[in-house]
């Protein structure tokens, strides 16, 4: 079985919705929800894999976050400050 890495996370919605739209979620709530959804999808896909393959897939999924322009940029800036 040759599983494919999970899809990258979609971009976050704009911080300020168009007028008349719903109020924006508190900062980080949308990101946290997307991250948890991605983690659950990743874990359920890894259940049938040997440990080494599952860990390699997890590393690929983590690295994919850095390829996304918005979250990746924020993560890189955070790591540069650390």
TrEMBL record:
The record's region (Disordered) falls at 1-34
Skewed-composition ranges (Pro residues) = 1-27
Q: What is this protein called?
A: Uncharacterized protein
According to its UniProt entry, this protein's organism is Candidatus Geothrix skivensis
